[in-house]
Amino acid sequence: MNVWTMAGIIALIAVAVLGSVIKYITYSSLKDLEGTIDTEKDEDGKKGPKEIGV
Amino acid sequence: MKKSKLPVLIMVFVLAFGIVLGSAMAEASVTLEPHKYAPIAPTHSVNTQPSGAAGTQEETQGTESAEVSPEIPASDREDRSTNICADPLHQSDPVCGLISWNNKGAGEWTAKTAATVRDVKLTTVEMAKRLKKNDLQAYIIKKAKAQFRNMETNTLLNNIYVVSVSDLNVLRHLSLSAGSVSLTVALGLSPQEGGKAEAYIQTRIHLVHEAEKTKSSSSSEDPSDDDYGEDIDTDDNNYDALAKQRAAAKKAKEKAEKERLKKLTAQITPKEREKDTDVAMAADEPTPVREGPSTEGILLLMAATALAAVFGWLIRSDLRVMRWYRQKKALRKH
User: Fold this and answer.
1) Where are the extended beta strands (E) located within B136-234?
2) What percent of chain B clears pLDDT 70, i.e. is strictly above it?
3) Do B297 and A19 touch (CB under 8 A)?
4) In terms of DSSP H, where are the helices of chain A?
């Protein structure tokens, strides 16, 4: 196998693993945040996120 | 640092990590396999002249028994006296090969030579002419050089020099009568051809009577004389035209051969080339060319970049939603 092929495979694996880990962390954080917000009630008594401009 | 720049930075970091890791692996591979990138060993260049040009009507296959020149060291004699013409594979060669290349380690290339007797017919008229012009030695050397070939490719070798010519004085003292005499022409390889190696060719000269009347006819000239290098005779009026014609034909042949080789090289696919490299390495031949990135390697690196971009986009989306939630949370507090 050519060394450059090997380098490409390793780069692909590294990107896949690191990307997955970071994505998992961000996703978990998001879910936690979502859970916190969903359990809180608005002043009008409604649950869940409120439409605001981003 | 703004939060919006974070995914881009992550993407860049992940990509850089993959590239650095890949490059490190490539370098490690070079270190682990140094033989793959060994320096270029001296190789022999060969004349591209087709083999048919060397064979002349006057040169006939010699006997297989050969007397080795006294200059050959006794230790080498057995090795050098190996007659390649005894090999059935080479018996059909018009002029059977004399040299087989042999890597003896430490980058030193030597030639294994075979002493072979070659018969050269020389007419008494020709002999007289050469003796008169005092270029008999050059003629004999030229004849011997024409037989100095690479065994593997059956092509003539350039850049050879004459080590010694034995018994040449015998020829000078010969009466111009029919008969034969043996002499040994020792030839060496110049540094371009591999250095110290020497080959010893025994050439037997046959003197053949020729009637005086044929002297005036054009057939008295040896046609093989013009095959290599400069011809010794200049008194022939047709020589210039003939030489020009032959030079043009030779050039055309060389050009055609070069083009053919170029086409063949272009036809070889990268996979076949890689296979050839493997075969060459298996045969312990040095591979001087350092490999560049292969197609697969480039495609895989591109795939890694694309994957990094996808992950970056996904992570960025998550972060945007998180920011949105945080903003909402902050609004609620107020």
Assistant:
1) 149-150, 155-156, 160-165, 179-189, 198-208
2) 22
3) no
4) 3-39
What residues of chain A have any CB closer than 8 angstroms to a CB in chain B? Answer: 2-12, 14-16, 18-20, 22-23, 26-27, 29-30, 33-34, 36-37, 40, 42-43, 49-50, 52, 54
Nearest to B62 by CA among B121, B138, B136, B137: B121
**B222 touches B120 (CB < 8 A):** no
Sort out which chain A residues have CB atoms less than 8 A from B274's CB and list them.
Answer: 2
pLDDT band for B109, please (50, 70, 90 cuts): very low
Number of compact structural domains in chain B: 2
Asked if residue B170 and residue B312 are part of one domain, the reply reads no
Rounded to the nearest angstrom, the gap between the alpha carbon of residue B199 and the centroid of all alpha carbons in its chain is 18
Q: Are B333 and A37 in contact (CB under 8 A)?
A: no
Closest approach of B151 to chain A, Cα-based (Å):
34
Report DSSP state, residue B68: P
Judging contacts by C-beta atoms under 8 Å, the chain A residues touching residue B294 are 2, 4-5
Q: How far apart are CA B56 and CA B120, in angstroms?
A: 10
Contacts of B278 in chain A (CB under 8 A): none
Chain B nearest CA to A30, separation (Å): 6
Does residue B118 register a pLDDT over 50? yes
Same domain for B119 and B185? yes
What residues have CB less than 8 Å from B65, skipping those under 6 apart? B117
| Segments forming the whole domain that contains residue B325 | 3-35+290-333
Report chain A residues whose CB lies below 8 A from the CB of B320.
54
The reply to whether residue A8 touches residue B314, judged by beta carbons under 8 angstroms, is: no
Same domain flag for B210 and B311:
no
Closest Cβ opposite residue B21 in set A10, A19, A54: A10
Arithmetic mean of pLDDT, A18-33: 87
Q: CA end-to-end span of chain B, whole Å?
A: 25
pLDDT in tens, B171-183: 555 544 555 555 5
Task: Give the separation between CA B130 and CA B123, rounded to whole angstroms.
Answer: 10
The mean pLDDT value of chain B amounts to: 56
When pLDDT is cut at 50, 70 and 90, the band that residue B113 belongs to is very low
Q: How far apart are CA B113 and CA B122, in angstroms?
A: 26
